[in-house]
Amino acid sequence: MKSLYYHSVESILSRKYFDHARIIAGKKGLQRQVKWVHVVEVISIKNLLNGNELILTTGLALKEESAFICLLEQLIESEAAALCVELDTNISAIPRSVMDMADLYDFPVIVFEREVPFVSITHDIHSVLINQQYEMMKKLDDFAQVLNKRLLTVNHTQEILNVLHKELEVPVIFQLKEQDPQFHPPMKRTEEIKMLNRYENHLGNPRGDFTSAKVILFDQEYAELFIYRDEHPFSEYEVLLLDRTSTALAQFLMRELYFNEKKRIEESKWIMSWLKGEQSNERLDTYLRGLKMNFHGGVVCVFSDSKEQEARDYTYFNLVARSIFEQQGFHALPEKDGDDLLFILLDTRKRSDWKKRIKTALEKIQKSHFLQNGKETIISIGKYQEEMMDIHLSFKTARESLLFRSIIKGQQRVFFFDDLHLYRLISIVNNNVNLWEMIEEYLNPIIEYDEENDGSLLLTLKVFLSCQGSKQETAKKLFIVRQTLYHRLKKIEELLGDDYMSSDKRLAIEFLLSAHDYLGPLKKGSRKSAVK
Question: Which positions fall inside the PucR C-terminal helix-turn-helix domain (predicted)?
Fold first, then answer.
């Protein structure tokens, strides 16, 4: 591993003016970085330090032990690099309490046992640091040029990560939001597991052996780039390299977004005609062969939001969602239909677990930044189709599933058409029979009574039947006393007839109650079922 432009206390001690220097405390802190040198002969210096300074003193203001402790506390708090004291000029020894505190905080305390020219030390070290700064800026420019040239031909993020690894020779970790981290260079499985454990521990409890830079797209954090080393902290040069690389990654990802969006716009009319069932078999086969993938079926997923999303949010969400779906074995084709976002999910794996894989993907998507506050977002998934020509049926059933948001109570936000068992049966019957006539025949007396008297007989009947005729459980669910329930049930019997609980009539009433719930939103939208 390279250590670029990092001067530690230990490396400074090897320079010529430190031949007669001796470290007497804080030996574990020798890897602290030195960025500048100060000569100090006063106690109050906290506001004069920026961190990583090597402090030189003859001890003029440190004759009292309390003054020495006060100075050391300020140096530790300001994250200075180390303290160098010239002995026998103003003080002859370092107090034990000072050494104990230095050991406690791993803060190096160094003594000069002979007189040394502080002006020569500062000149020597400052010359090295200033020359290093010029050299560092030149190398940063060279590195940026290499990245810019690579960006002209790069096809994958790994190629950019390789440039950074080649320069620093440290492990590089790249993590897109809501996705697993990528390690570069590739490691053996055992090494990767160890690195992953260190990385996850760092995310929970940040440590100095990792440093990172965020990859920002559309003013949002899209990914994060990490480098790792456990020997000593990273230098300013290495952090700047990391920043340059994160910028290059952002440019590459932006380019990918642009081309994908351009391609999407070109394909938009074609995809919408596919979703409407207007594509020919020949054109569809030609398109699918061009994808060079084997598909076992497909399904349409619709994200419906009552609030219009900004274009930049859609682009970000599109990229995140596609990547998550692909992890679960679906090649995702995005599209917009009005204010709704939708994906044609072409299945590259076995059909048997398609629903489980989609649920896993949707859980990750719902945790993403795009949907964290998306309480208004409803997700519907249509009927799985084995034939690509039938994808329009999946789209129509996904649309139909959205109608149930007002029927199914609770906090449910995801609707699979395959899970709407009774409502699917109602949909099929409604295509062939006028269910409203039957609803009016069986339930109209109760509906009219509720409208005229602002009553709750229809709700009471639903709950009573769902509780299998248990009056105690019904009263509990409705939060009413039994006498009130008895009165309502007597009125229901008068309106429906005393045989409404007979098996055949009860089954018909339960079916028509569900049909009433189903047809309410359908009547408003005047939509026909797509189920065949």
Answer: 457-513
pLDDT tens profile 394-411: 999 898 888 766 555 556
The model's pTM: 0.51
Please choose, from the candidates 22, 26, 59, 25, the residue with its C-alpha nearest in 3D space to the C-alpha of residue 40: 59
Identity at 417, one-letter amino acid code? F
The vertex-311 CA angle with 305 and 314, nearest 5°, equals 55
Structure tokens at 289: 């062969």
Higher pLDDT, 177 or 78: 78
Total residue length of the chain: 532
Nearest to 24, CA basis, from 88, 118, 93, 81: 93
**Which element (helix H / strand E) includes 323?**
helix 311-327
SS percent in the chain: helix, strand, coil, step 5: 55, 15, 30
302 φ, ψ (degrees, to nearest 5): -115, 130
Residues 6 or more apart from 310 whose CB is under 8 A from it? none
Three-state SS for 375-398 is CCCEEEECCCECCHHHHHHHHHHH
Amino acid at the residue 15:
R
**SS3 assignment, position 416:** strand
Nearest to 240 by CA among 279, 211, 278, 205: 211
Q: Which residues contact 328 (CB under 8 A, 6 or more apart)?
A: 357, 358, 360, 361
Spatial neighbors of 324 by CB under 8 A, at least 6 apart, are 178, 179, 361, 364, 365, 368
Spell 221-232 as b/e; 16+ CB within 10 A means b: ebbbbbbbbeeb
Helix (H) or strand (E) holding 344: strand 340-347
Q: What is the DSSP letter of 33?
A: B
Report pLDDT for 526. Answer: 41
In this predicted structure, the answer to whether residue 531 has a pLDDT above a threshold of 60 is: no
Look at the block and give the residue holding tokens 């692909």: 326
Helical segments of 152-235, H only: 157-168, 189-204
Q: How far apart are the first and last CA of the chain?
A: 65
What backbone phi and psi angles, to 5 degrees, belong to 64? Answer: -95, 140
SS3 57: strand
Report d(CA 153, CA 161) in Å as an integer. Answer: 14
Containing 49, the helix (H) or strand (E) segment is none
> Both tokens of residue 259?
């081309």
**Cα dihedral value 365, 220, 326, 192, nearest 10:** -100
Contact call for residues 83 and 107 (beta carbons, < 8 A)? yes
Angle among Cα 345, 363, 386 to the nearest 5 degrees reads 25
Residue 74 confidence (pLDDT): 93
Task: Please give the torsion angle defined by the CA atoms of residues 229, 235, 239 and 245, in that order, rounded to the nearest 10 degrees.
Answer: -80
Q: Which residues, at least 6 apart from 140, have a Cβ–Cβ distance to it below 8 Å?
A: 237, 240, 241, 244
How far apart are the C-alpha atoms of 257 and 176, rounded to whole Å?
Answer: 14
